[in-house]
Structure formats: structure tokens, C-alpha cells
Specification:
With 257 residues, the protein is mostly helical. A two-stranded antiparallel ribbon has the order 1-2.
């Protein structure tokens, strides 16, 4: 068994173990649609236990196959995997652009200076920030309703009352806050969930910061958690891209060499 197939098999085993449990929480599907012409999971495995099914499925996946079957597998992985891989690869320039734009904020806008803040893991994304800038941003965040009312974002979620990052940063810019600290504060308040955050989550976390004797320490802790979430997502994307292209290459080798 090649390294490629071993990696792909491990993923398929995880899917075989997790998906049946996940489906237990979803609505029943039309049984006529559950049968695939590819017959990925043979009928005799449908009634087996999860572990038994996984074991038999792995046996089928790792067994030698003739060239015609291998070519069919290659064409399937090539066309399906190329689409998925293309979507994943398209995210790389966006991720790079976002990281570059955040780091470019270093030295921009007004700054109160003060003690540099050690943000640990988050320094991967954020250059040096200063305590007084962070404290000022925490103190100057307007109520969520005001941010939403004065915001200019046209996204669907913003129209439903969610707080868009651009509106959040703009509201702090009007209060002469440092733009780097403002962006980092949004990341911490939102938990790294993206470019929008629920007003309830924002208000709850903001109240937590303002009630602490050292709000900057709580901010740093949340920012590191958000950065870890983001790094985990990037790592997951990289791993899935590896699996997609590994399956294409391995199946191509089996089919044509």
C-alpha cells in the first residue's frame, strides 16, 4: 500500500466512523437516493456494525484492482478532486492578502504608546501592539446597536443585525483608536469566527473585558484562542488539499503505470 493510499484510507476510516453517528441527528433521506451507481458501500455492509463495516470497507479499499477499475477511480478522483482542490487553492491568496493587510497596519493611525503587549501565538498575525491602545479601544467600543445603525456594510448578515468587522473598525476610527488594536479587538471579541459577530456575543465579551481588573490580559487570552482557531482551519485546509491531490496522483499511478 502506498503512502498516498494509506493517508486516504485513514480519512475514509474516520468518515466511516463519524458519518453514521452524524446522520443520526439529521432528517431521514429518500432511500432511493441513497443507492449510488458507484456502489461505494456495498449492500452487505449496510446492516453491519460501524467497526465491522469500517474493517470490511478498508479491506476493499486496500485490495489490488485491475487497470479498468483503477482508471475509473482515477477519473472520479481527478474530476471531483480538481473541483474541490481548486476551491481550496483559491483560498490561499485570500488568506495571504488578509494577513498582509493586518500586518501593514503596524505604525498606522494614532497611538497612545505605552508598554508593548506580548500576544504570544497571535504574533503570527499581529505585529507589536501597545497596552494603552488596547485599553482605549476596549473603552471606546460603542453599543452594538449604534455600530449596526451607523454601519455601511451591505452584507446579508449585517442587514440582519450582525456586526461586520469593517463597521466595528470604522466606529473605533471615529473615536481615534489605533487601527491595529481595533482589528485585533474584533478578532478577540468574535473568537476568530470570521468577519461578522453576533451583537450578543460582542456585548457579552466586551462586558467581560470591562469588568476585569486587567482587561488586556483577558483580551490577549481570547486573541490567542481566536488565532489558534484560525491556524487550525488553515492546517485543516492544507491537509485536505494534500489528501485530494494525493488521491489523484496515487490513483493515476495505479491506473497508468
Amino acid at each position: 500500500m502506498t503512502t498516498f493510499r494509506a493517508a486516504a484510507t485513514a480519512i475514509l476510516l474516520a468518515v466511516a466512523l463519524v458519518v453514521p453517528q452524524t446522520l443520526a441527528f439529521t432528517a431521514p433521506q429518500n432511500s432511493a437516493r441513497s443507492s449510488s451507481s458507484l456502489n461505494v458501500i456495498p449492500p452487505e455492509l449496510h446492516d453491519a456494525s460501524i467497526l465491522e463495516s469500517s474493517s470490511q470497507l478498508l479491506s476493499r479499499l486496500t485490495q489490488e484492482m485491475d487497470k479498468d477499475t483503477a482508471r475509473g477511480e482515477f477519473y472520479f478522483f481527478f474530476f471531483a478532486g480538481s473541483g474541490a482542490g481548486g476551491i481550496g487553492l483559491a483560498q490561499i491568496p485570500r488568506i495571504y492578502s488578509e494577513a498582509k493587510s493586518v500586518r501593514a497596519l503596524a505604525g498606522e493611525g494614532p497611538s497612545e504608546g505605552g508598554e508593548p503587549v506580548n500576544v504570544g501565538l497571535s504574533s503570527v498575525f499581529y505585529p507589536t501592539m501597545y497596552r494603552k491602545d488596547i485599553e482605549k479601544a476596549i473603552a471606546k467600543v460603542p453599543p452594538s446597536a449604534k455600530i449596526s445603525a451607523q454601519g455601511t456594510s451591505t452584507s446579508y448578515l449585517a442587514s440582519k443585525g450582525y456586526i461586520d468587522q469593517s463597521d466595528f473598525v470604522m466606529s473605533l476610527k471615529q473615536n481615534k483608536c489605533n487601527p491595529l488594536a481595533s482589528n485585533a479587538l474584533f478578532e478577540a471579541l468574535s473568537g476568530g469566527s470570521g468577519s461578522v459577530v453576533s451583537p450578543d456575543v460582542l456585548e457579552e465579551n466586551l462586558a467581560k473585558y470591562r469588568s476585569e481588573s486587567d482587561p488586556v490580559a483577558t483580551f490577549v487570552s481570547d486573541l490567542q484562542s481566536a488565532s489558534l482557531t484560525k491556524l487550525g482551519a488553515y492546517g485543516g485546509l492544507a491537509f485536505l488539499l494534500f489528501i485530494v491531490f494525493a488521491l489523484i496522483i496515487e490513483s493515476g499511478v495505479s491506473a497508468f503505470l
